[in-house]
Structures are given as C-alpha cells and as structure tokens.
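Why run this: before we spend reagent on co-expression, it is cheaper to look at a predicted model of the complex and decide which construct boundaries make sense. The entries below are exactly what would go into the expression plan.
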Amino acid sequence: MSLINFNNISFIYNKKDPNHYDALKEVSFNIEKGDFIALVGHTGSGKSTLVQTLNGLLLPTSGYTKVLDFYVTGDKEIIKKLKKEKRLKSKDFKKFSNLRKEVGMVFQFPEYQLFSETIIKDVMFGPLNFGMNEKEAKEKAIEALNEVGIDESYYEKSPFEISGGEKRRVAIAGIIASSPSILVLDEPTVGLDPNGKKEILDLIKKIHEKGTTIIIVTHDMDVVMEYATKVAVLKDSRFIKMVTPNELFNSKDLSNYSLEIPSFYKFKRYLDEFGFKNDISNANTIDELVDVIGENYGK
Amino acid sequence: MEKIIEVKNITFGYEKDKKILDDVSFYINKGEYVTLIGHNGSGKSTLAKLLSYILEPQKGKIYIENEELNEKTIKDIRNKIGIVFQNPDNQFIGSTVEDDIAFGLENRNIEQKKMKEIVKEYSKKVGMDKFLTKEPEELSGGQKQRVAIAGILALNLKIMIFDEATSMLDPEGVEEIRNLILKMKKENPELTVISITHDIEEAYLSDRVIILNEGKVFKNDIPSKVFSSEEEMKKIDLDIPFVLKIKNKLNEKGIIIDENIKTIEELAKFICR
Amino acid sequence: MANSNILGKYSPYNTIIHRLDPRFKLFSLILLMVVTFLPYGNYTNRFLVLGFLTIIIALIMIIGKVSFKSFFKSLSSMWVMFIFLLIFMFFLPNEGKYLIYQFENGYTLYYDGLLNVGHVILRLILMVALTIILTSTTLPMDITYALEWYLTPLRVVKFPTQIVSLTISLALRFIPTLLNESNRIMNAQKSRGVDYNRGFLMSKIRSITTLIIPLLVSCFSRSDELAIAMEARGYDPYKKRSHYKTLHFTYRDLLAIIFILLVAGIMITASCFASYVPGFDDFLNSIFNIPTW
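The model came back. Tokens follow.
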C-alpha cells in the first residue's frame, strides 16, 4: 500500500463560472513512505493545487487523493461509493483535523503565519490545536526548535523581532512540532540567499532522515538534483512522469517541460548538439565530464 | 574613464558597535555594468539603501556625478538614478501596466500626449506592449519586474540599480531579467547598471564584480579575475560560475579556453571545434 | 481567485454604458438614488413610479450587460434585513388603514405593513442595482478619476485632492493582492489546525487573530516598500503632476444626460403632484377593506 495515492484527480477553479480553469487534469500517481519527492513543472502547471489536496485545503472536483487512511475528495459519486464500501461517514469527508496533524504544510514565505506574542507560543500553537495538552505541546515545541537550530534564549522573544531567516525556521518548527508523518513544502527557499537556502534544505534533509516523507514543490533544479530521491513532473495540469533526478535530466524530452536545466546537463546537451565525438552519457559529475573531454581534446 | 558614482569611506551600523559596512570605498564608471554580490549580512542590501538614500551613512560620502548625495541634492539625484526593487508586487503602483509605466512620468509633469508615446515605446522595449491594460494580478513576477524596468527606462535616467530584482522570481523570470539587462546595455552603452544579486552566473556576464564580505570590499575586479580561485571563494561560502569551473578544470589539464567565452553554449562550441 | 465582491465587479465588455464618462455615471447614480427616496404619496402612486424606474434600470442593466446572476447574488445577502423589516414593520404593533386581522387581545395586523416592507425592499433593490451598474461597467480607476474631478473645487480650501485620489487608487490596486495574501495565510493556519468555520464567539475571535495579525504585519511591510518605491520614482505629493489618463465628455454622454434628466424629471414631477392625484388608492381601498372580520 502506498502512503499517498492520487487517484485520477481533476480540479477546476470556479467550476460554475464561464471562465473556469482546469488546474489539474486526471492526475494519478503514488508516493511511498520515506520518499523525498520533488514536484516540478512550469508556473501554473498545477503543482500547488495538487499538494493542497493532500490535507484537504482543496477537494478534487473528481477523483480522490488518499493519504494514509484518509480520503480527500469533493466528488459526490465517489463519496457515495466510499461510504458504502469502506463504511465511512459524511463527516469523514468534511473534517480534516486528524489528516492535518499527519500532513505538515509549509507554504511560500511561511514567516507570514507567525502571530503569537512569543516564539515558543507560536510553535506550540499547532500541537495545541491538534489536541495535545500544554505540557506535551511545550515538549514538542522545544524539540522542534532544537531541530531547526533556534536557541533557548529566543523562546520568550517576539517572533517579529528576529531576522528573516530565523523567522522562516521558527515557522517550520511550528509545523514539525505536530510531528507530521508527511511534510509538504511549497517553494521553501524563495527569496533566500545561497547560504540561507542551504540551511533550510539541510534541515529538510535531516527531517527526512528521521523518517518523514518529504514532498517539495520547487523551481530550483539544483535542489532536485542534490536532495530529491524522485521527481514528479507536471505540465499543463497533467502528470507526466515520475523518475529519478538523473533520469529526468538525461532524458531527451526534458526541454518539453519548460524546466530550468542545471548548468551541468545543459553543457552536456550542447556538447552532444555540437557533435562531441566521445560518449559522455556515463559522466555524472563535472570531474568525470572534464576527464572525458581532457582525454580526447585535440586528438 | 569618467566616474559616475563614487563611494568614499562609508561606515554604517544599526547598533553602535556592530558595523554593517566598515570603511567601504569604490567607484563606478559611466556606462559600466557592475554586479555587487555577497551573503545576507555582508552589508550589500544596506549599501543599496545608502545608494538610493533610504539610509544615510554615518561616516563617509557618496558622490553621484561629483555631486554629494544628501538631503538637498536627493531630488536632483532622483532624476539620475532609478531602482528596481526585490518584491515585484510592492513596487507596482499603477492599476494597470500602462498606468504603472506612466507613474514616474506623471511625477515629472510630462505632457499627456508625449506620455502616451513614451509608454508605448518603452513597453515595447521590455516586451510588454501587448499587456498595457492588464492588471498586476494577471501578470507573472518576471512580467511585473519588466514593467518596473520600463517605468525607469522611460525616464531616461543615467543609472539603474537592481536591488535583488530577481530573487523572488522563478527561473524563467530570472532568465528574462538577465537577458533584458544585457539587451538594455547593448542598446544604450551609456547606461550605468548596478546589480545587487546572489546570482553568480549574472555576475559572470557583467563588466565588473564587487564582492562584499562582513562589511568590507573583499574583491573588486573583472569577473574572470574575481572568480579565478575556487578555494578563495569557498572560504566565503561562494560558488564560482559554471563556465569558469569547467575552464579552470580544463586549464589544469593544459587545455586553454578563450578568455572571451562566457556562456555554456559558447564553451561547448569551442570544445567541439 | 476569491473574487466575490458584494457590490459587483467590473466586467470587461464594451457596451455603450461602459463607454460613458465615469463622471456622468457617478452623477446619474447619485441623482437616481435621490429620486428613489422622494415621497410619492399613496401606495399606488409609489409602486407605479418605482415600477417605472425599475423598468428603466432593468433596461440599462441589459444594455450594459450587467450580470443578473451576480445582481441576485448580492441581493440574496439581504434576506436578514428583509426579516428585520418584516418584524418591525409588520409583526410588531403598527398603525394602518387596511386591516388584515384583529386578534381578541387587541393585536392587529395591517396590509400597510406588508406594503411598506415591499416599498423599502424595492427601493433597496434599486439602489443595489444602480451601484452594480456603476461598478460592473466602470473600472475602479475611472471611478477614482471621477471622484477626483468632483473634488477639484475643494482645492481652493487646500483639500489635498491628488493625495486622496492616489490613496484610493492604491487601495483599490492592492485589494486583490491582499485577498490572495489572506488566502495564503488562512491556508497556512488551517494546516496548523485552525478551523475558521467552526466554533463560537471566543474561538472564532481567536482564529480570526491568526489571520489578522500576520495580514497586518505584511500590510505594514508592503506599505513601507511601496512608499520607498514611489519616492524612488520621484513622487512628491505637493508637486504638480500630469495625468496619463483624462476623461473625455462626448456627445454620447450628452444624450445620456438628457435621458437621465428626463427620467429624473418625470419622477420629480410625479413626486410633486403625488398628493393631488387620488390614483387607485380608492380602488385599493375597495379591495382591502372588504374583509373586516
């Protein structure tokens, strides 16, 4: 059984409006426990819509998203069917708080979700909402703040007086404090400098290594190459394929998906295009590639 | 060479004993395209604010065309410097593309008929002439930044500052703006461009790179020299441009690549020759 | 994508109503609103005159391709008011001429109550219709220009018309941006277990603060950046600025003005003579007075 199963889902914005818009068309694929998935595709390809079905922020217009034992759908036919087959009740399709505890969601610029007087209170907010008591919530919050590298001296500070990078880490702590088994991140590194970016990504990697399934929506192909175990490609609201990063960047049809190609693969492509005589398909690092070029140059 | 901007011994700090910029000096020539790079906390965004007179230096002076930047001269200097900021939404003032391009012209009390012509001309230059009546919500980040650029180009200023103008854009947007800057420079070599950026690939394409580190000028030279040593860059946690990386590695193997080759495409072509 | 605006949203057609000068449209809106509130004597006259206006307004809506759907949608949010009116003007003890029923304890119900409610509701509907005609055929920016034009005379008393109109237009410009932003914040908080739909007063207030505080923080930083960007582009509130767009009054507007003045004229005349015309009230009398159980 897969951890997450997108089952033929479509999503239409403003369904009844004449200018309605299909954000997702018949998307089907699975995500396994422990994966680190990068979800890529051009702006408007449906990535953000897709991940919002994971915790019931959006309900698929048709088809369903199955996460753990939860079904997320707004399709009346399917609801009817599932009620019968799985003995589910109407409220199982309307109440998502149990699901939201399991699926942590980090949006773009997460620092804009901070609102409490102190950092510790803000991080405790999620766990408290999900039914933990004060003491448990505090323990969880401290654990999460440790994880993101926020020092104890910060706990009683206001979340509005710390730096931008720190705010972002506090916001992420606020989400992992509920110990979700799935963590979804929508462009978590936008607006950060290379160091800040690396800090956040290494943090996500650490969380992944502890067993959390990671789904990251990104435009940054370096992130895909360095961190993801698999890439899911969306284009024009449709699911195209799920492959390993290496397979994606070496594939011939890469340019069809309007993705930014990492410099290394771009270079390989140009070499092929201009008729480089030797086989470079096995060169997977800069050094290997330079070796091949060096051996054959001028001969 | 005529100096257009001169930064002399600038010191600045928000708190007393914590200097963000410490005795920084450099100059920029007329028509130059200079990129300013450095990490958050290196002082580069503070420098941008000083150059646009959002902040005032505590010590030292900034000269624009030999005129000292201060409260008295700032109105005059606004007619020389235009700035493209980081957040595409928060600098979109007009309710539509054409209104936004016209905003600076309205402030300079330009006659309406002339304004319409200018808006048409410059929207075309940035490739937004088909979107004149569009509202900001209907545009991508890259398109909004292009509108901001058109609004500044329309004023015919001598200096343009890009303050991390691409850091909130998707890769397509970054590429759009990178190319637009090069195109602008080609069409108007007199234009001085200062780009404050994280994008080392952009830096490689500029005329000169200034690296700030911990409030001081760490490097100030042409790109190929600035990035010549990978180890040195690693020390301040900066990478070096991809093309240069390959060039350096090939160099070690005794293969010399032409100095003028700057893009991946050119490099591949050169090798396959 | 959350663009449900109660008072209508601009719909980009190019009808004759769209092309009219916004200053004229604003003027007509106010004129016709005033006219609906004039006294028109007895019930028959009131409904006759307002009926006439309803037909005119409906015609304008059809010509201007105003969406009747969004019109009815905004009306549907008025049902609470309708119930209140019904309670106050009908069910609570009122005076009246046409009795429906008198209970033994002296409590009475009158047809007058119903007619009054109908009258008030009709006037409200007409107001909403007029507003929607304006907003759906006129760009918010053009309404601002029109406002600025009407405010111009106030410059004599040093009223900063330019600043006011720029402020309004900036506010309009940022509404969709802030709607998107609040959507994003709400999604983030929902993911942290906030339920904006459930709960009673206290918990509702608590969940709203999780939206309001971040939204305010973001608003402040935005306005900061916006002010800097405006200054950098040479904005000086006290300097004379030129205008990229100006409004033009054409023969079309002249014809429209004649038409609207004619309508208003008819209404005003009707109002002046209302008390002299017996109308069908006697006829109504004969209908409603029959049942005096």
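Chain C has a mean pLDDT of 84. Chain C has two domains: 1-139+244-293, 161-236. Bring this page to Monday's planning discussion.
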